[in-house]
Amino acid sequence: MDGQISPRSQHILKVLIESYIRDGQPVGSKQLAGGSGLDLSSSTVRNVLADLEARGLVRAPHTSAGRVPTSRGYRVFVDSLLTVQPVTSDNVRQIAQRLAPGASLKQIAATVSSALSGLTSMAGLVMVPGGMPQRLRHIEFLSLSGNQVLVILVINDREVQNLIIETPRRYSEAELTQAANYLNQQFAGQTLSGVRSRLLHELRQAREQMDSLMQSAITMAERVFEPDEVIDKARDCVIAGQTNLMGFDELSDVARLRGLFEAFHQKREVLSLLDRAAYDGQGVRIFIGEESGHDLFSDCSLVTSTYQVDGEVLGLVGIIGPTRMAYDQVIPIVDVTARLVSAALNPADQPL
Amino acid sequence: MDGQISPRSQHILKVLIESYIRDGQPVGSKQLAGGSGLDLSSSTVRNVLADLEARGLVRAPHTSAGRVPTSRGYRVFVDSLLTVQPVTSDNVRQIAQRLAPGASLKQIAATVSSALSGLTSMAGLVMVPGGMPQRLRHIEFLSLSGNQVLVILVINDREVQNLIIETPRRYSEAELTQAANYLNQQFAGQTLSGVRSRLLHELRQAREQMDSLMQSAITMAERVFEPDEVIDKARDCVIAGQTNLMGFDELSDVARLRGLFEAFHQKREVLSLLDRAAYDGQGVRIFIGEESGHDLFSDCSLVTSTYQVDGEVLGLVGIIGPTRMAYDQVIPIVDVTARLVSAALNPADQPL
DNA sequence: TTTGGCACTCTTCATGATAGAGTGCTAGCC
DNA sequence: GGCTAGCACTCTATCATGAAGAGTGCCAAA
Fold first, then answer.
1. Minimal Cα–Cα distance from B226 to chain A, Å?
2. H-state helical runs in chain A
3. Cβ within 8 Å, pair B150-A164
4. Of A132 and B127, which is predicted with more confidence?
5. In this structure, is the CB of residue A329 within 7 Å of any atom belonging to strand C?
6. Pair A239, A126 in one domain
7. Which of B282, B281, B302, B284 is nearest to B293 (CA)?
8. Which residues of B60-89 are buried (b: 16+ CB within 10 A; e: fewer)?
9. Is residue B140 domain-resident?
10. Closest alpha carbon to A331 in A318, A341, A344
11. What is the pLDDT averaged over residues B99-112?
């Protein structure tokens, strides 16, 4: 039962899966004998199918309904049988066009995600990473009514974050400007976590020795750089085109869809899944059906690839759709997209 | 056929609709005769029902299936028959808690929207208006790589917007700071459209007479205040809890849901609908079924109320759900929410 | 004006028959 | 040993049928 799969069996499995992906119907021995290119009788095919079923690569929904691929079957298919379609230059153009240089990571994520969703008619997703060092570019304080201060942070040259903090007392505009100047001068270019630890250090060192200016600045900054406030916020994923998934029969059960959509909304499960996908190395990675480990995604597959800047893996683009998807087209699309994003983010390729 | 509806008919209509809202099943004459509180035979009720049907207030899905309310029926119901439930203090607290003072409009919109969705198990929505005068509080320029400049705008003391513009030449940090200072000094506190027209005016007046500082500032600002860039962006609506709608039988048709979700995503239709709802005056406003004019919403009702600052209507909160909803509970919830939002936004109630 | 009664209609559900698809197995062929 | 043809078997999908139940409309009587 174990051992190598004969080339003929492989070929039959390939044709079966291609047919099933195309039509969504279980494939019978007769149809397979006719359309496989091999000159075999349906009876012979039946023997082969019985063998494939014993290996757990296909299964029969019921006694007389032909065979459909199992997750393991898909796995073998994408690992060793798949002949990927070259991606059309039209598709490349569509994605490249949308990658206007000089957008923020968030904006890029949004456009790329929706581009992927559009090209594949499934849900596109882009993870923007948390691990990336966040460098403070610029900080600005503005006094609001009351003791509230509006803080504007520019991080990594692109991302703008703003938050409102409550201060123990009211500060004048002049104080705020001075504090900002001090912080900009002192900490610009450093990572947020670095800024944070340095702040703590300075605080501990000598509170009394500081002049009032420094004190204001540091009191303020203390609040801004509380870890959860800013730092963790950056890690997120953007999902576009979820409604596309409503078009697939195998996902059209309302309850299932609801679960999926809520997972997308809360993003927790999705992120944990993406983390696993990002774990090792570059290139396209695929989760099929139950391989994801989450029941929710049991009828879904995930095709992802990483993008990087300066050789360092930053995040991840991909699509999520029904297990029965056109892998031969989706894989290269995801692959190319990841490369394009890498290129767009790499400063070397940008006009400096 | 026309003319007044007798009190007895009204009462029967009321009981019918309440029953239908509760159970979702067509209501028959027998059930109605028993549970109406009136001492009538089913036969008499049948006569009344025939009358109500002739008036277009109820209809029979088929010959022997009891009656269900029509949109007109619901309309009569909410206009003159409805006895609203007092909103529980628990609900009030839930909303009030979430309204942390000093959040940006966008943040408020998001929390309120999701609070409404949670309380009603339907989709909550909040419109933040475009008509509101947008006053420039502060502007800041930061040079990025290339000829790109990151612009940070603080509007109305709360909203922070940032955009990246391409400039014809590269500016130094010093130039950018000076330009920002000039603009802040000159235009702070004015409306964006005001700033825009004044800029045009200055430009026309005398380009040669300006010193280079002013020129830089104005060239830059020219791009920032292009009408579509900033000004229209503020008008938006936030929808939360769309997945809740998947729980309702009458909306569980996947195709229909898909349409709805896509409308929510694109927001165009939703905004046009909300515009109509916001059109006149305060208080709770209700669109039932086809009254919305959009086919998509034909099985949905919209319950909205406005919130205001300084007596001026700013925007709109509400929920969207199936026509068959518990109006008696939803209406007061929306009403109270709108009041709470008004209160939270009114500077008078905030610590100054 | 209300009520009781009755015939009628329509849906829903279970039942059973039928056709079609596909399999597994066995016997025969190269 | 591998391939093929044939056949019995199983399972599904579909359709028609019939019975039960719910509710109406209308008529005649109180």
1. 18
2. 7-23, 29-35, 42-54, 71-76, 89-98, 105-120, 173-187, 192-205, 212-224, 227-230, 254-266, 268-279, 327-345
3. no
4. B127
5. no
6. yes
7. B302
8. eeeeeebbbbbbbbbbbbbeebbeeeebee
9. yes
10. A318
11. 80
Residue A76 identity (one-letter amino acid): V
More confident call, B312 vs A21: A21
**Predicted confidence (pLDDT) per residue in A48-97, tens digit:** 999 999 999 999 999 888 999 999 999 999 999 999 999 999 999 989 98
B287, B268: one domain: yes
Determine the Cα–Cα distance for residues A131 and A127; give it in Å rounded to an integer. Answer: 11
Residue A81 falls in which region: left (phi positive, over 0), alpha (psi -120 to 50) or beta: alpha
The residue among B64, B81, B98 that closes a domain is: B81
CA angle A266, A120, B243 (to 5 degrees): 30
| Residue A52's CATH number | 1.10.10.10
Query: Å between B249 CA and D25 C1'?
Result: 31
Helices A268-279, A254-266: inter-axial angle, 10-degree rounding: 70
> Structurally, how many domains does chain B consist of?
3
Cα A196 to Cα A133, A186, A192, A347, B50, distances in angstroms: 13, 12, 6, 27, 75
Residues of B with CB under 8 A from a CB of A: 102-104, 137-138, 140, 142, 144-148, 150, 152, 154, 157-158, 160, 162, 164, 166, 242-243, 246-247, 252, 254-255, 257-258, 261-262, 265, 347, 350-352
CATH number at residue B303: 3.30.450.40
Q: What is the pLDDT of residues B216-272, one digit of tens each?
A: 777 777 777 776 555 555 578 999 999 999 988 888 888 889 999 999 999 988 988
Write out the residue range of the structural domain in which residue A46 sits: 7-81
Q: Specify whether the CB–CB gap between A214 and A178 falls below 8 A.
A: no
- Is residue A1, in this structure, part of any structural domain at all? no
Under a CB-based contact definition with an 8 Å cutoff, are residues A346 and A309 in contact? yes
> Does A154 lie in the same domain as A111?
no
B242 and B124 both lie in a single domain: yes
Residue B22 lies in a domain: yes
Distance B48 CA to D29 C1' (A): 20
In this structure, the answer to whether residues B104 and B252 fall within a common structural domain is yes
* Cα within 13 Å of Cα(B217), Cβ side: 23
Contact B300, B322 (CB under 8 A): yes
Interface probe with B: pick from A137, A150, A165, A229, most Cβ of B within 10 Å? A150
Residue A131's identity, in one-letter code, is G
Please give the Cα distance from B317 to B338 (Å, whole number): 6
Choosing from A48, A81, A114, the residue where a domain stops is A81
Distance CA B43, CA B29 (A): 7
Give dist(CA A288, CA B290) in Å, integer: 43
Q: Where residue A179 sits, what CATH number does that domain have?
A: 3.30.390
Say whether A243 and B254 touch across the interface (CB within 8 A).
no
**A26 contact to strand C (CB, 7 A limit):** yes
DSSP state letter for B27: B
Q: Which residue does chain B place closest to A149, by CA atoms?
A: B102
Same domain assignment for residues A165 and A218: yes
